[in-house]
Design a protein that fits this description.
InterPro entries: BMP_lipoprotein, Peripla_BP_I, PnrA-like. This protein is of the alpha/beta class and 379 residues long. The protein has helices at 4-16, 35-41, 85-99, 116-128, 142-148, 177-191, 206-222, 245-257, 271-280, 313-326, 356-368; strands spanning 71-75, 105-109, 134-137, 157-160, 170-173, 196-203, 227-234, 262-266, 284-289, 305-311, 343-345. It is 36% helix and 16% strand. The strands form two sheets. Strands 7-6-8-9-10-11 form a six-stranded mixed sheet, sandwiched between helices. The two termini are 25 Å apart.
Length: 379
């Protein structure tokens, strides 16, 4: 994230560019083309082209034997099949089974209204059964992991989206969601016909506000004309916002009625309703966490999904399990950001191919430090 040399090159390139970034070709929602209307919306020059070595990978070579691991996977609300956050975690354990020889993974899913005691019981039961390591998917598990981990010092725990637990047997798996969401905001502004876009968050928590913050900043970075609708399904503490497609549909439809024609959601399983609303109202949508263009549970809406902000929970989970199998956690990133491809954007369907140079240019600037992305929304 430092990259002084890259930052200097980036600033020089920006100064050398003049005028507004414009796409050419037909303005067609179905194809995802930027079109002339995007050019009328975009007021910032294109960023410099991304250097070939702008990113690195978390990949680690060498055969690792995970056959002795007995993995417990405690899902957040929605569980396997949510086409989003939980499915990404499941993909990581599936990869561990295929590549590391992990024999089995015991899964359990939280309900939207369950008590803290129920979460603790889930983790206690996994530990009592000899599962090791145990992965808690979501910040909602933080109090439970804090309570349970000290009772089982020989069990390795990981928690996704929380780094507040300071126990020696707990590994945080956290991400720079705001960085990937910045690129989603850039894509939305370029693809909007009306220069009017929307955001739908599931639950108004600091974590989801990171998605919101990056999206707003990215859109505003490329257009000073952009209008943005910005809504949440439920307040903090009410986690039903991650599992209410009907409410997601209503909220997205309301944003579209106000003029937004590209909607980005960070709402878990509620995103299905956002996609349905976009398709029904001739709008476009941006997915989250997984490459939702390829998710079977939202396949009926894939033609309106132009990209997804990919949060590589799968990579983080797989790398954690690999590190545990090696008995060496020192190589795990402290934060999975753009620099280690821990977040990014999807290209499935080819709907952002025409602006890939723009997205990669901004990605390189974020990696170098030339662009700093805030994790707090600036309205």
């Amino acid at each position: 994230m430092r990259g002084t040399a890259l930052a200097a090159v980036g600033m020089a390139g920006v100064l050398a560019l003049a005028g507004c970034a414009k796409d050419t070709g037909k303005n067609d929602n179905a194809s995802g083309s930027g079109g002339d209307s995007a050019g009328n919306c975009i007021t910032a020059p294109k960023p410099p082209a991304a250097p070939a070595a702008a990113t690195s990978s978390t990949a680690d070579s060498g055969k690792v034997d995970g056959s002795k691991l007995k993995v417990g996977l405690a899902f957040d609300v929605g569980g396997r099949g949510d086409a989003s956050f939980n499915d990404a975690a499941a993909a990581g354990t599936d990869q561990a089974k295929a590549e590391l020889g992990v024999p089995s993974v015991q899964e359990s899913t939280a309900s939207a209204s369950e008590s803290e005691a129920a979460k603790q019981q889930r983790l206690e039961q996994m530990a009592a059964q000899g599962l090791n390591p145990i992965i808690a998917v979501g910040f909602a598990y933080a109090p439970s992991v804090t309570a349970v981990a000290p009772k089982h010092p020989n069990t390795r725990f990981a928690i996704v989206d929380d780094d507040s637990i300071k126990q020696p047997n707990v590994t945080p798996l956290v991400f720079a969601e705001e960085q990937g969401s910045f690129l989603a905001g850039v894509a939305a502004a370029y693809k909007s016909k009306s220069c009017h876009i929307g955001f739908v968050g599931g639950v108004k928590t600091p974590l989801i506000q990171k998605f919101e913050a990056g999206y707003l900043q990215g859109a505003k970075a490329v257009s000073d004309k952009i209008e943005i609708e910005d809504d949440y399904l439920t307040p903090a503490g009410d986690f039903t916002g991650f599992q209410d497609p009907a409410k997601g549909n209503v909220k997205a439809a309301a944003e579209i009625a106000k003029g937004a024609d590209v909607i980005y959601h960070a709402a878990g399983a509620s995103g299905k309703g956002v996609f349905d609303a976009a398709k029904a109202n001739d709008a476009l949508a941006i997915g989250v966490d997984s490459d939702q263009y390829n998710q079977k549970t939202v396949a009926a809406d894939k033609d309106i999904i132009i990209t997804s902000m990919i949060k590589r929970v799968d990579i983080a989970v797989f790398q954690f399990l690999r590190s545990v199998a090696k008995n060496d956690l020192s190589s795990l990133p402290k934060r999975f950001d753009l620099k280690v491809d821990g977040v990014g954007y999807a290209t499935s369907g080819g709907k952002v191919d025409d602006i890939k140079d723009v997205l990669d240019g901004y990605k390189a600037q974020i990696v170098s430090g030339a662009v700093q992305v805030s994790d707090k929304p600036a309205k």
